[in-house]
């Protein structure tokens, strides 16, 4: 199946009981057994639910994986993956990552004896120098949140295989429409399905996909043991959202390109971070491993004044000031005080998350309205 066909059909079949085309919402906690252990494949909905399983099979197919798992949030997916490790193990992670990821790494898992090294991943030399006998995992985001840095997934894969490490790629910003890390050598792909995959800002969920059966067995055991699974209603909503993923992502990319170029020329904008620019540090890698450059853009303002950033994000109309990203509606945010507030100021500023940095999730509205909205807000500063 081609990608667009997968979004609509992969993992889904007409209901055998009624012939319903759409996957039913199996709103049940338990399932009848003819005798102990004699059942129809389902025992208890923490372990497996037909609606959730249809979604898990769907996201696995989209990422060209074999095994998919869904969780109650993106952070629950991260929690499950890191629990593959034990005290004394070490993880090399990007130093420019989602604030919630940084928070769970440093405030939860470091206390349990797992050590994290945060480094820029635009240059692979930074990673090899940190690998030691305790290193067990590389955790990458590409593009990163919020600086839109690009990591070379093939290059990371070569390092991870040489050193026998697990390579995890957070593919939330790109989605499998633009980038398929498993095909590039990653071991696990992680998603906040809340974002582009669901696409309508109406559900919170996470996902993980892999190809290796033994790795999948470990993840399934953790999923079942820890129980951070989504309900069937949320699973149905994400399944529904994915059916238009290819159409939405195409428009996000088209609008993102226009917005990025508009911001680049505006006199009150200092820097624009978007991997589609040829001036981007790893533009050539992005061009090679992505099919387009996405609808996420960050920029900072001339003078780097916090009050200017606050005024701008508070005075747009079509760009809604809110957490999250990837919905059909355009969103605007201030990472330093919102999504990345958990990261100490000195640490976030090293990666470029300065006080005037603004992050855009460019939606699928009419581009003329979006440009007008940004122009009016910028010109009022």
Describe, in plain words, how this protein is organized in 3D.
It is a single chain. It is built from 14 helices and 12 strands. With 381 residues, the chain is an alpha/beta fold. The chain folds into 2 domains: 3-242, Aspartate Aminotransferase, domain 2; 245-379, Alpha-Beta Complex (Aspartate Aminotransferase, domain 1). It has a 7-stranded mixed sheet with strand order 1-7-6-5-4-2-3, with helices on both faces. A 5-stranded mixed sheet has the order 8-9-12-11-10.
Give the class-level CATH name of the largest domain: Alpha Beta
Largest sheet: 7 strands, mixed
Distance between the termini: 50 Å
Structural class: alpha/beta
What's the assembly state of these chains?
single chain
**CATH fold assignment of the largest domain:** Aspartate Aminotransferase, domain 2
Strand order of the largest sheet: 1-7-6-5-4-2-3
What's the overall average pLDDT, rounded?
Answer: 96
In terms of per-residue confidence, which ranges show pLDDT below 50 for 5 or more consecutive residues?
A: none
DSSP helix fraction: 25-40%
What is the general shape? globular
Question: In the residues, how many domains can be counted?
Answer: 2
Tell me the CATH superfamily of the largest domain. Answer: Type I PLP-dependent aspartate aminotransferase-like (Major domain)
Per CATH, which architecture of the largest domain? Answer: 3-Layer(aba) Sandwich
How many helix segments?
14
- SSE order: HHEHEHEHEHEHEEHHHEHEHEEHEH
């Amino acid at each position: 199946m081609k990608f667009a066909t997968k979004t609509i059909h992969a993992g889904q079949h007409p209901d055998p009981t009624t012939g319903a085309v759409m996957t039913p919402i199996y709103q049940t906690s338990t399932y009848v057994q003819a005798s102990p252990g004699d059942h129809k494949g389902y025992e208890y909905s923490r372990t497996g639910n037909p609606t959730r399983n249809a979604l898990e099979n769907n996201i696995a197919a989209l990422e060209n994986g074999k095994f998919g798992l869904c969780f109650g949030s993106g952070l629950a997916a991260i929690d499950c993956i890191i629990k593959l490790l034990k005290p004394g193990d070490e993880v090399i992670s990007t130093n420019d990552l989602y604030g919630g990821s940084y928070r769970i790494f440093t405030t939860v898992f470091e206390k349990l004896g797992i050590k994290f090294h945060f480094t820029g991943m635009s240059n692979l030399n930074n990673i090899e120098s940190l690998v030691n006998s305790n290193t067990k995992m590389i955790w990458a985001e590409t593009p990163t949140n919020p600086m839109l840095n690009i990591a070379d997934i093939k290059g990371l894969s070569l390092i991870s295989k040489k050193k026998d490490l697990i390579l995890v790629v957070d593919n939330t910003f790109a989605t499998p429409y633009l980038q398929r890390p498993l095909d590039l050598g990653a071991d696990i792909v992680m998603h906040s399905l809340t974002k582009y995959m669901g696409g309508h800002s109406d559900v919170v969920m996470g996902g993980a996909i892999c190809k290796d059966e033994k790795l999948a067995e470990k993840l399934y055991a953790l999923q079942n043991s820890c129980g951070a699974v989504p309900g069937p209603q949320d699973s149905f909503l994400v399944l529904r959202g994915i059916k238009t993923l290819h159409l939405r992502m195409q428009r996000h990319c088209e609008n993102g390109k226009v917005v990025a170029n508009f911001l680049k020329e505006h006199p009150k904008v200092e820097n624009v971070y978007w991997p589609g620019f040829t001036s981007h540090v790893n533009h050539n890698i992005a061009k090679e491993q992505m099919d387009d450059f996405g609808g996420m853009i960050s920029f900072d303002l001339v003078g780097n004044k916090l009050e200017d950033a606050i005024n701008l994000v508070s005075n747009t109309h079509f760009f809604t000031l809110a957490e999250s990203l990837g919905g059909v509606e355009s969103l605007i945010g201030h990472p330093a005080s919102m999504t990345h507030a958990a990261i100490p100021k000195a640490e976030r500023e090293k990666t470029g998350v300065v006080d005037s940095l603004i992050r855009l999730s460019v939606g699928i509205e009419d581009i003329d309205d979006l440009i007008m909205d940004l122009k009016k807000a910028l010109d009022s500063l």
